[in-house]
Amino acid sequence: MPSPPPRFLTVLLTAVMAYSMLQLFLLGAFAPYLNAELGVGPPLLGAAVAVGFATAALLSPVAGYLTDLLGPRTCVLGLFALIAFALGLFAAAPNVWVLLVAVAIGGLPQAFANPATNKVIMATFSPERRGAVTGWKQSGVQVGAFAAGLPLASLAAATDWRRAVALASVTALAMALWAALALPVDEHRSPPRVAVVPRGAVAWLTGFSVLLGCGIASVNAHLSLFSAVELGLGELAAGALVAVLGVAGVAGRVAWSRAAGGRRGPDGFPALLAWLSVVAALLLAVAPLVPWAVWPGAALIGVFAVAANAISMVVVMRRATGGRAGQDSALVSAGFFAGFAVGPPLFGLLVETVGYQVGWLLVAAEFALAGAVALAWRLEERRRAVA
C-alpha cells in the first residue's frame, strides 16, 4: 500500500507538467518579439517547435529507463534544473541558433515529465485515487499555456520578453527546491531491462498516441489562425477561442481520468474519446459555412481529444509491472510527441494546397484511426483472454 501523499503533492505534479511544456508555449506567445529581434518568422518558428518535440520523442525511451533506474524524485529535480537552464539560455539567446539549442535542451524535460510524475503517483497514491490525480497533473499542460499566454506575456509587454523568460527560469529553480522538500526519497532497485521498442498494450497505446497527437497538435497550432483568416474573428475573439480549448481540456482531463480510475477500469475510454473527437473535428470543418460551430468544436476537442491523452497515462499505470512504469510511460509519450512533430506540418501543407476544410477532415480521420487502433487493441485483449 502506498504511503500517504504529502500535502499539495498533486499541485506539485501539475506544476511539473506545466513547466515541462512552458518553453514551447513561450515560443508561440512571444513569436512577435522573436521575429522582430531574432528574425524568427513562421518557417523558423515551426522548425523550433518541431525540434522541441522531436527531441522529446527521440529521448523519451532513455528518460523512461533513467526514471526507473534513478527514481522519480531524482528525475524531477533534474527536470527542473534542465528547465531553468533551457529558459535561461532562451532569455539570453543572441541569435536564432542559440534559441534552437535552448529549445532542443527543453525537449529533455518533456521526455522526463510523464515517466517521473506517473511513478510518483504510483508510489504515493492509492489505486482508487490515481485516476483523478493523473487528470489533474495532465491538466498542467494547459496551466503552462495559460502562464505563457497571460501573466508572462503581460510582463513581457510591460517590460521586456527576455525578463519574462528569465523570471520563468528563476521560478523553475524555486520549484526544484519545493520538489526536493516534498517528494519522498527514491527507493534503490536493481536496474530494469532497457526497452526501446514498445510491446503488448504499450505498443497499441503508442500507435494510438501518434495519431491522437497528430490531431491535437494540428488544432493547437492552427486554430487561432484559422479563426482569424477563415472566420474573420478579431484577435480578442481568437484568443478567447484558444482559452475555451484550454479550459475544456482541463475539465475533460480531470473528469474522464476520474471516471477511468473507477472499478470498470480505463481500457474502454481511449476508443470512445477518440471517436467522440471526430465529431469535434467535423464541427471545425463546417465552421466556414456555420461560423458558430467553431466554438463547440474547440470545446469538444478539449473535452474529448485532449482528455484521451490523460487516459492513456491512466492505462499505463494500471498495467505497469516490474518497476517499468517509467519506461512504459515514456514509450507512450514518445508516440504522442512524434504526432506533435508530424501533425502540424502535414496540416499546414494541406491548407496551403486545398484549404482548411480538408485539413480539419484530416484531423477527423486521424482521430477515427486512433479510435480504430484502440478498438483493435481491446479486441486483441479479449481474444487472448479467451484463448
TrEMBL record:
It holds the Pfam family MFS_1. Residues 9-383 form the Major facilitator superfamily (MFS) profile domain. The chain crosses the membrane at residues 12-33, 45-67, 74-91, 164-183, 203-224, 236-256, 268-287, 293-317, 329-351, 357-377. It comes from the Bacteria. Keywords: Cell membrane, Membrane, Transmembrane, Transmembrane helix. Coiled coil: none annotated. It is a multi-pass membrane protein. SUPFAM superfamilies: MFS general substrate transporter. It is found in: Cell membrane. InterPro entries: MFS, MFS_dom, MFS_Efflux_Transporters, MFS_trans_sf. This is Major facilitator superfamily (MFS) profile domain-containing protein.
